[in-house]
Amino acid sequence: MIDPTLPRIDLHRHLDGNVRLQTILDLARQHGVALPAETLEGLRPHVEVQGDQVGLMPFLARLHWMTAVIADTDAVQRVARENVEDAAREGLDYVELRFSPYFQSRPFDLDPAAVVAAVVAGVAEGRAATGIGVNLIGILSRTFGPDACTIELDALLTQREHIVALDLAGDEERWPAEHFARHFARARDAGWGVTAHAGEAASAESIWAALRHLGATRIGHATRATDDPALMAYLGEHGIGIEANITSNVQTGATANFRAHPLKAFLAYGLTASINTDNPIVSAIDWPHEVEIAAPAAGLGASDIRAAQRNAVAMAFLPQAGKDALLALRS
After folding, report:
1. Which of the 8 DSSP states describes residue 212?
2. pLDDT tens figures, 231-262
3. What pLDDT is stored for residue 173 in this prediction?
4. Alpha helix ranges (H) inside the chain
5. Furthest CA-CA distance within the chain
């Protein structure tokens, strides 16, 4: 059901939530990190979700093993390069990879600025090898609080010309968006776009907060948006992009099942919503799976998927010339 005349785009994909199982094994052996298993199949259930739904905390626990082996910047660079290679292997034309330098630096107390530089270098290697279009989105991990996010933002700004946007991820309920207004003002001053995880583990008010306090023009997940008719109207009137992630939302319990996912409702309302992967290896999926299997399971037909593919172009953190080039790729 993928429209072959439209570009294949993934706008919400966590670089540090998409580490190959073999890479986890390799890096663990190289750096003496104890894993729960020492074979691919033994490690798989500790990293990949088995079944449709596990809940938010068990889902997030699987991310631990993806950063537990990041012992140096060579590892960071490898993971970044492999992310680009894997996106190209899936047939993507353009991907926006997001990452948290603080999240990656914590296990071995790496310099967050060095982590950012290594991500940039790895992505450049992957881009040169594959020819795929790639941009980077920095993440502030609000779970660690505003002070840690200041360190994280400072690190990201050392590579400001290689980053197109800033995202806010982590604990929505404990750390609402207003705590990070100054961080995102700095991001906007740097010329970056703004997206934010909101309405996934908290209410529709979390989405309002991201719009009001951060200046977000895109929202990640937004599964609770349909709870608030005024919010739905605002999202439509202002062209706010929604980065939908079907399978991961079912797995975390953000939606009860595939049929309950709001993407169909977003598109029916005319919102600018797209189909994305979130953490592909944790979810054991790829972008074609989300379009060809998860989207129909969520009630989307061919016209809905076509609209979502077009929306991804409109939402991308690219200048108009870049969007036009993407549309020309397969037309």
Report:
1. I
2. 999 999 999 999 999 999 999 999 999 999 99
3. 84
4. 21-31, 40-47, 56-61, 64-67, 73-89, 101-105, 112-130, 146-157, 181-189, 204-209, 229-237, 246-252, 263-269, 280-283, 287-289, 295-297, 302-315, 320-330
5. 53
DSSP 262: T
**Strands 241-244 vs 218-221: parallel, antiparallel or unpaired:** parallel
Encoding tokens for residue 245? Answer: 């992630």
Sign of CA dihedral 5, 11, 15, 21: negative
> 324: part of which helix (H) or strand (E)?
helix 320-330
Which of the following is catalytic: 82, 152, 200, 290?
200
Amino acid making up residue 129: A
For residue 253, the one-letter residue type is G
Q: In this predicted structure, what is the pLDDT of residue 60?
A: 83
- The domain limits of the chain are 9-330
- Look up 172 and say whether it is catalytic: no
89, 280 contact by CB (below 8 A): no
Is the CB of residue 153 less than 8 Å from the CB of residue 166?
A: yes
Inter-helix orientation angle 112-130/146-157, to 10°: 50
Per the CB < 8 A criterion, the answer to whether 14 and 37 are in contact is no
CA neighbor of 140 nearest in space, from 107, 109, 95, 185:
185
pLDDT mean over 30-39: 96
Q: What is the CATH architecture of 9-330? A: Alpha-Beta Barrel (3.20)
Q: What pTM does this model have?
A: 0.97
| pLDDT higher than threshold 80 for residue 187 | yes
Q: Which DSSP category does 179 fall into?
A: G
**CA-closest candidate to residue 294, choices 242, 253, 249:** 249
* Cβ contacts of 101 within 8 Å, gap of 6 or more: 112, 113, 115, 116, 119, 138, 152, 155, 156
Mean pLDDT to the nearest integer, 10-29: 97
pLDDT at position 219 is: 98
